[in-house]
Amino acid sequence: MVDGIIIGAGVVGCALAERLGRYNGEWLVLEAGEDVASGASKANSGIVHAGFDAAPGSRKAYYNVRGARMYAAEAARLGVPYRRNGAYVVAFDSEETRVLEELLRQGKQNGVEDLRLLTGDEARAKEKGLSVEIVACLDVPQSAVVSPYEMTLGYAYHAAQCGVRFIFGQQVTGIDGDPEGGFTVRTSGGSWRARTVINCAGCASDKVRAMMSGEPIRIIPRRGEYYLFDMAAGCPVERTIFQAPGKMGKGVLVTPTVHGNLLIGPSAEEIPDAEDTRTTAEGLAFVREKAFKTCQALPMNRVITTFAGVRAHEQKGDFLVGPVPGAAPGAFEAAGIESPGLSSAPAIAEDLAEQIAAYLQCVQKDRVPEPVPLLKPFSEMDSAQRQAAWEKNPAYGNLVCRCEQVTEAEILDAIHRPVGARSLDGVKRRTRASMGRCQGGFCTPRILELLCRETGMDPLEVTKCGGESRVLTGAISPEQGEGSTYAE
Amino acid sequence: MLNEKHLQVVIVGAGPAGLSAAIAARESGAERLLVLEREEQPGGILQQCIHNGFGLHRFSQELTGPEYAWRDIETCREMGIDIQTGTTVLSVSRDRKVTAISRKRGLEVFQADAVILAMGCRERPRGALATPGTRCAGIYSAGTAQKYINLMGYMPGRRVVILGSGDIGLIMARRMTLQGAKVLACVEIMPYSSGLNRNIVQCLNDYNIPLLLEHTVTDIRGRERLEGVTVAKVDQNRQPVPGTERNFDCDTLLLSVGLIPENELARDCGVPLCGATGGAFVDERLQTEVPGIFACGNVLHVHDLVDYVSEESRLAGQAAAEWAMGRAPKTEKVMQVQDGFGVRGTVPQRIALRADGETENVHLMFRTSNVFRDCALVLTADGAEVLRQKKRILTPGEMVKLTLSPQLMEKIGTARTLTVAVDVQG
């Protein structure tokens, strides 16, 4: 019997795991996907929102503002890149200007600092790329960018260091309250007993809730589509540029990512199937049209990829954080976590961990290991650092991904560290290898070979992102066809 | 600080371009010469091109890619040319410092008198097309699939649709068929293929693989592994025509949608690049606008045949060696070369006229922007026609070469602008 099972290894589940890992106890994370950040946490805007647009008094407002204040320190502690680049919310007419005034009032009420209104000209003086049609702008200096999957990984790495176990490929199929207290969690791969169960299942959080409680919630998945641009194309804005929000969320933004790529999106479409992360002609056209309204200088010929993420919108519209209503004692949840979920994750995790620890009466460990620093990317090293890195580890001399300048040393680290990569996408998210302009055309076969060499996997077992997403379908036997005519 | 090694000529890349450039540079007298190659063996992409058809022009023989590469590698070995493999060049500076890293030697800095950029090209990825759909496994650029099959011995799929009809895609249609896969169609958005006619005949027609011109992939399905694609006809603006969609159940989509010169090193070094070719602006000796830095092969402009890559690269090798040894001819005036109607990406973009009045053959290479039949290529100097060549057919898939003889160059004299154009009247 473990003390707690966290269902879901997205940013909230991993942040919670990292908090609980500081307490004495046995903690387990069960994840349906093959890696952390397999759902909403791998594909969103990557914004740490300041917290001006959630309704005052809502849990979204509370956790967003509190989480955003924690972020710089959290990211620094975990060694994850984070940049407070500020945001503008722009208005194109007097009606939208009134929306900005309302956001200013609401933001102040939520406790967001440094908000102020600017004229269109004042905004353009700071952000040269903005459209001449912008008439007013809300300046949000506290807004920041972070990589959502790197944040999730950062939490997961430290959680693992603190002794939290992660098991992947575990779709939860049932949760039973045990007569003597505690729960049995059944999955596609086994069953585990736990004193507490915490539902951090993102888009599946309604299904997991229904396994524990007669009081249902309903997640309406919302898909958002994005364009990502080549880093070499630069970014026409420094800040994150929002448009005045509508009822489907914050609208299409134009932003640099924390790594400096231009990102535009998302669209917002309610869809029946939370795993349907396809992009559509309509969704992408919508993103282009809206983004062009903000900024005309979008280098559409430098797009490197399009993608979609799905947000777990709960029909009542607010986060659900705490003990699960209508469930046996020991059932907790962080459900309906959509935007600003990334921003809120540190605060949600802090609260939930305290509640769970209080319930279990467990105490903090005397010593918690410092997070093992992430490797400094080769691409960010100067010549002296590169030479020094190679002297320690010659694998730094082998550049595997040339677009993003990722070396073999970094890929081996991604595979071998706790919660290591086991798929091509896993390597990509940990190292940026194959994330550049050639999108892995050159380095994918090399990464596949390294995965096989280091883990003993057969090449036919290697997947893009787990499950049946195998890269290769068969080996060529020497007897067959032309296969015998070449030397390699 | 790292020691800097001084060399006359440093060549970035040991594919066909780099090898030919190295041989010519040595023949021209450059003794201190180094070729840097990131792969573990020289030869570049030829090593995975195990089909034949290479060398018809240069050797009057049909060689496979590795055989073609082997000839130049052998020549380099016989000449004692130093090819350092497993070494990735990280930067080239305007004053020709080349910084590279390798597993064996760590970081190295070479100060070169002349640098030849011969990095080749890469394939345009799916993301650049922004095709709607899922991002499942089973979508590969054709060259990546070629590597899996020919170098690693694994099949990347069983039922295949190919998007784009570039040469690698065509070659892979045949290769996958021979290896037991079913290739359902090759889908090309343009009204013509960008590949060589002989590849369409030998790789598609011979295997009854349909070539769907003016079609594109409009949707990609499959959650984990690819399950199918939707193909639709496109209108004159290349937009899908509603109602023409058809589905193909397939587990693999190969992309052969264009090649992009791999010019990150050139860009970082401030070498001006030409929008039409994606390569550097060069003069007739293949010198970029940064003195002492030369470019040749597919990093300069994407070629159709390796034979022409080798030929062009010999010129770069010779010119770089002469530059390094202070024997480059003095020039005084520069003539601009322009693309006229129907012509795209003429190389070189400028011709430097020698101060001593000597002229050599100048080769203009370009592609046409459409298929033209019974037409003429016309060269004008400041508007006056100086050369006209009748052509039965010109297609974008085949590179056109126009040689300007010393006599013609004399006739052109001191014109400021040369324009190459297609005259559809013939």
Structure description:
The complex is a heterodimer of chains A (488) and B (426). Chain A has 488 residues and is of the alpha+beta class. Chain A folds into 3 domains: 2-40 and 149-219 and 317-360, FAD/NAD(P)-binding domain; 83-147 and 220-311, D-Amino Acid Oxidase, subunit A, domain 2 (D-Amino Acid Oxidase, Chain A, domain 2, 2-Layer Sandwich), CATH 3.30.9; 378-461, Orthogonal Bundle (Arc Repressor Mutant, subunit A), CATH 1.10.10. Chain A is built from 12 helices and 23 strands. In chain A, the strands form 5 sheets. In chain A, strands 1, 2, 9, 10, 11, 12, 19 and 20 form an 8-stranded mixed sheet that branches. In chain A, strands 13, 15, 16, 17 and 18 form a 5-stranded antiparallel sheet that branches. In chain A, strand 10 (172-177) and strand 11 form a beta hairpin. In chain A, helix 1 (11-20) packs parallel to helix 5, helix 2 packs across helix 8 and helix 10 (408-416) packs across helix 11. The radius of gyration of chain A is 23 Å and the shape is globular. Chain B folds into 3 domains: 1-122 and 258-328, FAD/NAD(P)-binding domain; 125-257, FAD/NAD(P)-binding domain, CATH 3.50.50; 330-426, Immunoglobulin-like, CATH 2.60.40. Chain B is built from 9 helices and 28 strands. In chain B, strands 1, 2, 5, 6, 7, 8 and 20 form a 7-stranded mixed sheet that branches. Chain B has a 5-stranded parallel sheet with strand order 10-18-12-13-14. Chain B has a 5-stranded mixed sheet with strand order 23-21-28-25-26, with helices on one face. In chain B, helix 6 links the parallel strand 13 and strand 14 (211-213). The chains are: A alpha+beta (488), B alpha/beta (426). At the A-B interface, helix 7, strand 18, helix 9, helix 12 and strand 23 of A face strand 7, helix 4, strand 11 and strand 15 of B.
